[in-house]
Amino acid sequence: MQHLDAKAQPQGAITDYDNLRSHVIGTLASFHGTQSGDPEKFGSVLVDLVFGEGLTAGKEFPLALTMGYNAVQSMKELLKEDMDRVAEWEEVSCSTEFET
Hints:
mainly alpha; 0% strand
């Protein structure tokens, strides 16, 4: 597996972005090996998804799939915030309808 090198200089890189690139790559590299997800299990789920087997059997093929506990929790929070915003603005949004 190739590891990220914060000091690596990609061919054709714009030197003005060296500090930013080094920071981003360094941050990403610090996450390596600390993920809670098992890549083998992830791969198995993807294969099951493609073939409609295992835990994915009988489920509609998703347009997008959130994988991993942390990702699911983050997505739930984002969706809750979206639903709260929809509820807050519902009266304003619906005020644009024709009168019946």
